[in-house]
Every structure is written in C-alpha cells, then in structure tokens.
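ligand=adenosine-5'-triphosphate
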Amino acid sequence: MEVLRTEALTINFGGLKAVNEVDFVIGDEVVGLIGPNGSGKTTFLNLVSGIYRATSGHVHFMQEDITDCAPHEVRSKGIARTFQTNRLCLNLSVLDNMLLGLHSRQKSTWWQAIFQPSRCQQELEDNIERCFEVLAHFNPELIDKRYEPVSKIPLIDRRRIEIARAIVGEPKLLLLDEPTAGLNTEETMEMIDDIGRLRESKMKVSIIIIEHDMAVISRISQRVVVLNAGRKIAEGTFEEVSQNEEVRTAYLGG
Ligand SMILES: Nc1ncnc2c1ncn2[C@@H]1O[C@H](COP(=O)(O)OP(=O)(O)OP(=O)(O)O)[C@@H](O)[C@H]1O
Ligand SMILES: [Mg+2]
C-alpha cells in the first residue's frame, strides 16, 4: 500500500535548489532518510508537512494531492512530525503537552463547553486515557510525572514525549527529524527500540526517519533513501546504499 509519494519535488531558495526533483515513495515501512549536512533532509520533511511551499513537483498522501495544503491540513489528514530541535512547551506539564497532540482531533466546540459541559468532560477524559496509553508505550513513569513541567524532565524522556505527542492522534505517517540528537549511545538504542516497537502496536504507522547515526539507520529502516545537495542519489536496503560509490563519495568527500 502506497502511503506517500513525491514526484519531482523541488524548492528553490534564491539560487539554491535545496530539494531538487526528488521522487520518493513510502508504503507500510520505516524509511531512513540520510545524507550529509545541508543535503536537504529537513527541507524535504518541511515540504511534505506543508511548512514550505514547493517550487514545483507534487506530494501525494493516500492517493490525494496535498502539495498545496497548509501544515494544519496536512496534520489533520494524518501526517505528524517531530522537529530537529525540541518543540515541547517547557512550562506546560507532560500531560498538557500530550493533549496538544490531540487538538486537531477535538470534536467538542466552544458552545458545547458552555451548554454541554459533561460531553466536553467526557472527551477530555477519553483523550487523557489515550495519552496515558501512548506514554506507557514509551515510559510508564511518565504517567506518574504527568503534572510535572517538561522543563524538569530528562532529555531522553522529552524526546519520547515529542514522539508520543506526534502519534497520539494516530497518524498514518510519522516524520522524525533526528529523534536521537543529543542522546548517548545507550539512550539512542533504547529510543530506536521504542520507535521500532511502535510498528508492532495496533497502530499501523509508516515512518520516515532522518538520522546521522548509521548504526541506528541499519537497525530500524527497511529501506534507505540518500540525498546529496538536494538530489536523491541512491535508495535501497542499508547494505545496498552503503556499497554505493556515489554515496561513499558524498559522505567521505571523495
Ligand atoms: N528557509 C531557508 N532559506 C534559505 N535556505 C534554506 C532554508 N532552509 C534550508 N535552507 C538551505 O537548504 C539546504 C538544505 O538544508 P536542510 O536543513 O534541509 O539540510 P539537512 O540535510 O537537514 O542538514 P542537517 O543534516 O545539517 O540537518 C541548506 O543549504 C540550507 O542552508
Ligand atoms: Mg536537518
């Protein structure tokens, strides 16, 4: 089943083609997106998630053209993401941060909050239950820490909360931009196993993961796509792309 497809996706920043004619497909799988610094990986995710508008080319999600959709529309269609730098609200509690991830699915309206408060209350309770389920997947201790401000939570758990918040609304596609940045080797592997286990849960989520650590990429991705200077230069299994001459040159600078 095809989940996302980009066709000749391109964006120009002045004279720079940060993403250049990229054809990319993902089905029910984990795809690693790799490439040297500045090769266009984050920009590619920004195009898919509607943050940047493509200069040319198309993005199709579940057979629908979403090239010109705004970020909130992309999100409500079922694409969630995390960012290269932490975007949690540090002064808010763990639970409040999690509930933000369900905002786009909220059904109760402002007038129901006034005239049918019990209905709103029920929706909130269901949402909290759902947040607990997802937090438990990553680290059950986070449920006990639900009222603590995120600023008091260690980095690895903050990264977990970010992913938990992204998936709590049950997206079909999850975009992860360097989810293990700043973690040590042991924490990185824990995190990758948490992410891998998401695919074993009842939620069928496809994942695009940007990652610099090749051990991580080889452990988690079924397929790898390599960007260099905005262009896709290779794709295949980790073994295939790591044998590829152009990929080796891009990484080692010849
Ligand atoms: N808003 C922007 N305006 C101008 N140039 C930009 C913009 N966003 C990205 N770029 C440029 O596009 C190129 C690709 O950047 P991008 O952040 O996508 O790289 P990356 O592969 O994610 O790198 P890294 O591994 O360092 O995160 C870089 O040359 C960057 O300077
Ligand atoms: Mg980046």
